[in-house]
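To: structure desk
From: M.T.
Subject: fold request, one chain
Message: Could you run this one when you get a chance? Sequence is below, nothing fancy, just the single chain.
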Amino acid sequence: MIYSFSPFGYEGALINVEVDLRRGIPAVDIVGLLDACVKESRERVIASIKNSGFEFPQERVLISLSPADLKKEGTGFDLAIALAILEQSEEKQFTHSQDEKVLVMGELSLSGTVLNVRGVYSALQTAVESGIKYAIIPHSANLEVPEGIFVHQVSDLKEALNALIKVDEHAEEDVFEEEKPCNTDIEFADLGEYDYSLDTVKGMNALKYAMAVAAAGRHNILAYGAPGCGKTVTLQCMPQLMPKLLKGEAESVRRIYSLAGLELNNKARPFRMPHQSATLEGMAGGGPKCIPGEISLAHNGVLFLDEAAEFRASVLQLLRLPLDKGQITLSRAGRTTVYPAKFQLAMATNPCPCGNYGSENRSCVCSPHTVETYWKKFGGPLLDTIGIRIDCNKKDEMNGYTLDELRSMIKDAWEIQYKRQGKLNQDLNEMESGKFIRLSENARQYLDTIKEKYSPRAISLIKKVARTFEDMNTSEVNGEVSESAVKVAVELRGGVPTDNL
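Reply: Done. Structure tokens follow.
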């Protein structure tokens, strides 16, 4: 049985491709709620079968794509339809392969060449979940194959038919390895993959360390300062501080990128930097096929908003729910899909419209009301989710760390967190925070003296950042959080310019 895949949203759906040959005037009919691309596949399939040296059936051909009430879109059904037709017309070549479920995806050129299509990795994952053990996909699909499925990568229709005939041969082989445990080895990308190293950025020591704390616990970070102070170029080095994707994380990220028609770079964590003109649909995702937006493309990585105040207020407020829930729900034409969106938010912005508020060497021409209006665009609830805020206009008196030193601290912190709780500190819910973040008596007393200045969510974030700071500077897995760590977390939280008005 031949199956293909209809990519819609994050889930998508397997499509059963059936062919019936019957007496009558030669014609080809395709049924199953099709869009224009699928209807046009009739002509591509006929030409590719003939140009590949096969004889097209001189009978009436009925092609059914089921479930019939699900709209079929795109060109990924071409290869499946062609193989289903050849399977029926060349039935003598097959033994039991017609009883074996096979996933087939690919677009056909008129010459019979198999072209790559969007959503191949997502289709393979869905096939594994549905118990399909074999797949035929384009040779040009550059992807890492999920465990649990045997994949034939083909370049033309002849190779695809041969692969389909040989499915029985592989059915008798033990082609699957035993399931391996989730990989939690902490590794960093080689610096040769980046345009420049964090070590080449002069100064900005306080921001560099704050970025390391943010990376060590996956905390959100905001840097503001005068134009040209170096906050953007420093924050663009954030990927250098992020360990590579772990095995369990990589699968969902590859699926999202496959649905978007993009390639993931060597297990590096996503780093998305949308332009300030980004629309709601561009950030959240959508369109007729509910393709992922920047928020989901940053899943398990970093979403960096440079000149964040220049983004639309509606776009900034859109970030609040995904930051809390780690997912985003899209609804289009009666269909709903849920994309994972567990991203780390990094923002850089000026302190005011002219950019000079708080600067020692430049005069600000903005009124207090203008500065307040400027920051109101972010909204209190969004700013409250930012656990680390750095004023880059302040005199930087902190000792500098090299990139290797920061990476070593981050690696130690990640290993401690995964050993203690199986996740990073920012991902802890309130119940888990109470269990794994144990404050010393002095730390608890200090928090009691300042808790009236902060919201309950801010106090929770301060505890998580303090826990991360402790993990970076100690080898104890279940040690208490000291008062000094809480004070560092409060200092890292800082404020925004409107707090001083």
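Reply (cont.): The longest helix spans residues 403-420. Let me know if you need anything else for the meeting.
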